[in-house]
What we know:
3 helices; 48% helix; mainly alpha; elongated
Amino acid sequence: MRRTILPATALLALTSCAATPDPAYNTVSGGAGGAAVGAAIGCVVTIPVGCAPGAALGAIVGGASGGTLGLASTAPPPVATYPPGPPVAAYPSTAPSPYSAPSAYSAPPPISYGALPPDYPGATQ
């Protein structure tokens, strides 16, 4: 009997999620379906001891896993498509550049700090 229940549960879990773009609907529907299937399986498995404890545990586990599968089956929002923008003006490659590098670089002129004070060491008088 367990060999029949597990594939049936997997099929029910896959078909109960409609994969709509609404994550709340998918989570609730997956959780409800999972709880129902889990309760049924828990009841069937624990018939010799009593149906209630197995059904309760099965509903908890089935609801949690069904809700997770339902949320995971949410389709992503559609990708926005935009019309192409205006053409970009290209600079002609044959036009001369308005900028030019200087022909030669020279060192800056020396900085003069003026005369040293007479009491400065190394000052000439």
